[in-house]
Amino acid sequence: MTALAKALFIGDISLDTTLLMESMPQPDEKLLVNITNEMPGGVVTNAALACRLAGAEVGLAVATGDDLFADGLLNPLRAAGIDVTGGRKPGRTCRAIVLLDALGEKRLLLEPGVSMYPDDALLNTLNWRGVGWLHTAVYGDAAHGVIGHCRTAGIPWSIDLEPATFMNGLAPLHSVLEGAETVFCNQRALAQIGRNPIAQLLALGVKSVICTLGPQGARYVRGDARHHARFAGTPAVVDTTGAGDCLAGWFIARRLAGDDIPRALQEAVDAATFSCGGMGAQSSYPTRKQLIESEHAPARNAAGNTER
């Protein structure tokens, strides 16, 4: 892989609102809540920001709706140094409402709107020069053309295999899974695939699979190769929103920087764990400098005591 190659992310963008509450409301109950943050979200957009914070050159192609707030979603991404190609569609931008209780348990409400995937008109304007990796989630038919381009151009691609993208099975995704460098899966996605899910994905031509395992870290599988990474210590978990997206983006950045699989996976797990210590997704992602400094600091347990 080329050290200076660019990572291109194509997919969804949303406005994420996190509501902190003491408990979930009962029927007909009015409950006071705190809005802890509102910011851009989306599984691919989140991964793009994490990739940038991990040190990579990053491009992002998304399409918002025509809401009043839509343009404002792109500004912080550009301020972070991401090369954003943005379009607009008639309709509502995706909204995600994260309900977080006092114990850190979350529930997610999602209105997809029109911003789950850009259309061909926007994608045809993309500059692919210098792109060394493509990451996407197949929320639109246009993804097939994007991956077809990668296949022809010899560009590695990865897929976030979101459960909502294969509600009727993997058959519609066979053409985009075959040849994928990496497929990222959470436990819900693996359960939805069914029996021997990793073996199924590898049999379809996926080169490697990364499974996120919550507090157990993540596992990488490629042929006979197996790597497992887990955070060393006991993190204080506040909000897990976007942690898997952080892991994906961070892993891609470190692979493009030349790190081997075990090192890239470990750093990605550490970054994702770091993100669980703050509210929201993007607001909790560390810079690489912050992550390195945190690794050199004394580890603390959930009670705040230094671990020996």
UniProtKB/TrEMBL annotation:
InterPro entries xrefs: PfkB_dom, Ribo/fructo_kinase, Ribokinase-like
Keywords on record: Kinase, Transferase
Domain of life according to the entry: Bacteria
Entry annotated with the keyword rRNA processing: no
Pfam family, one: PfkB
Annotated spans, Disordered: 284-308
Gene Ontology biological process: phosphate-containing compound metabolic process
Transmembrane segments: none
GO MF terms held by the record: kinase activity
Domain Carbohydrate kinase PfkB: start-end pairs: 6-288
Name of the protein: Carbohydrate kinase family protein
Species name: Acerihabitans sp. KWT182
